[in-house]
Amino acid sequence: MHIDPEQVPAKTGTVYPEPFKARLAGRSKRRLGDAAGLKNFGVNWVALEPGAMSALRHWHQRQDEFIYVLTGEVVLITNAGEQVLKAGMAAGFPAGEANGHHLVNRSAALATYLEVGDRTPDDQVTYPDDDLVAAAGDAGWIFFHKDGQPYSSSMSSV
Amino acid sequence: MHIDPEQVPAKTGTVYPEPFKARLAGRSKRRLGDAAGLKNFGVNWVALEPGAMSALRHWHQRQDEFIYVLTGEVVLITNAGEQVLKAGMAAGFPAGEANGHHLVNRSAALATYLEVGDRTPDDQVTYPDDDLVAAAGDAGWIFFHKDGQPYSSSMSSV
């Protein structure tokens, strides 16, 4: 099935609970894989406005992730430090590798990239810089404080 | 892990048995996902020279597939006919959808795209236009004639 990304609705907002939502301002996603009817993995076309980030810095226990920069440039931040990724560069984040990562657009121009992630069940997500842990539930991600207390209204569809 | 696609070896050739190998001339792949240590899905950067094709026309029983055109243009061929996909266009092929597909570069310029596929086990591949069936084995794809006879030397690592 052929997909024109411009015909796929751009979705802003995030499933993160408060007080984290505001930090995802300026990010929008088009769910190309879902639009094509794929189930085993997702492929999103993502746009980051200047100053926006891909996600809170995190790593997945069971799901692999991959990104490919299409236009502009982003800064990849991991435990190893920072690296500028320009259009045509890629990065992969193997499941279970305890190295939190995210992308930040520190440029003055829009940056776009493709992100791919599989849907292996029973995943958990660790956020090393924030009081946040996520567990995959039947209806989406469930968010907890690091002491195990759930965030209120934390059940959200992904 | 950051990946520079140009540093990932370009691989030509195919795991198809004879007499199909020659039809894949002009195709090269860089296995970006593997280079990043991903296991759950593969992401390949693929280049098609003028006249080259992505694969024999086929569909997967259990594995989803997705492509995103990076440069140039390709013709997507499915049961529904032909469609030109230019840079920035995408297509997805859900597992189990009995609609053989492939990409052909009918232009005079190189075309490049990203392809994504998951690694769900016990997959089978149907090739509607050719006397060929593939089954996922422990060490790669095993190829059969449509009457069930194996191709000689058909075990190949993927």
From TrEMBL, chains A, B:
The keyword Transmembrane does not apply. One of its GO terms (molecular function) is metal ion binding. SUPFAM superfamilies: RmlC-like cupins. Residues 45-116 form the Cupin type-2 domain. Keywords: Metal-binding. Signal peptide: none annotated. It holds the Pfam family Cupin_2. It comes from the Bacteria. CDD domains: cupin_SPO2919-like (cd02224). This is Cupin domain-containing protein. The lineage of its organism: Bacteria, Bacillati, Cyanobacteriota, Cyanophyceae, Oculatellales.
